[in-house]
Amino acid sequence: MKSQKVFAVIKPNLENLNRNLKSMVGARHPVLSAASKHLFSAGGKRIRPAIVILVAKASMNGQNLKASHERLAEITEIIHTASLVHDDVIDECTTRRGVKTVHNAFSTKIAVLAGDFLFAQSSWYLANLNNLKVVKTISKVITDFAEGEIRQGLVNFDASVSINEYIEKSFYKTASLIAASCKGAAMLSDLGLSEQDEYYLYGKHLGLGFQIVDDILDITGSTQDLGKPSGSDLKNGNLTAPIFFAIIECPELQILIDDEFGSEEDISRAIYLIKKTHGIQKAKDLAEEHIQTAINIFSTLKSKNDSYYHHLLLISNYVLERIS
Fold first, then answer.
1. What's the CATH code of the domain at 194?
2. Host domain of residue 54
3. Helix 279-299 vs helix 241-249: angle between axes, to the nearest 10 degrees?
4. What are the transmembrane regions (predicted)?
5. pLDDT tens across 210-250, in order?
6. Count of structural domains, the chain
7. pTM of the prediction?
């Protein structure tokens, strides 16, 4: 993928982030410490902190990053990882990023406590930024995660959910963190309120596009590429854009949903039916709409540092290239 070169320009920042993450999540209790290190040793794409670093570099107009920018990138990844630990417990996933999930490697109790611990650690580091406005912006994300998870749980196997409701849930579960961290980076760069809000909207639409692409990959991707079993969303009754679009063309999908995919054959059959419709293409079109909206918003913020502006556009394209 051509757009993957976006990560090369900030490679030193991401390498430093990976080193810091392991020390930041150190816990006195050896089991909690082991669970936390297990998570971060698995790696990951680090897309969220990459976006934070690129926004920081673009908004600083070529000046050196502040230590608080890099710390915000680290906090963003810790919050994201904490949410994954809890999601894996709820969804009963056995693998994540190609390794055993925490509850599978240790226990459900340890996983819940590890997730709580990571949220607490992120809050402590956030408070130590000594910037109340950034604290208020980022801390709301944790409540958004809970809201998104509850909303999702209440509509499992419910095909009557509208696309707008799906987008709203996707905001709470994914886009909220990206939007808030983009705004937080702009705040730390001492930009004006209107520019902060533009960065927030850029992150929001980029995050929505990212989530829709993830939902497409749950249908089309392999377990190896996903780092978790394909069809996991379907199995757990988490209906997404490809399903909502496909069911219009294929009533048989409704029968499988009503039966809550009672067997493994039902999951395979549902994926086959979705791929036969225009559901995946329509979902891709929806993702492209949000990515283009993000690009259009960001074009009004073009900084003097054209290099990092260009790389923010590349990371937007990278989101779509994951399904090309």
1. 1.10.600.10
2. 2-321
3. 140
4. none
5. 999 999 999 998 665 655 667 888 888 999 999 999 999 99
6. 1
7. 0.91
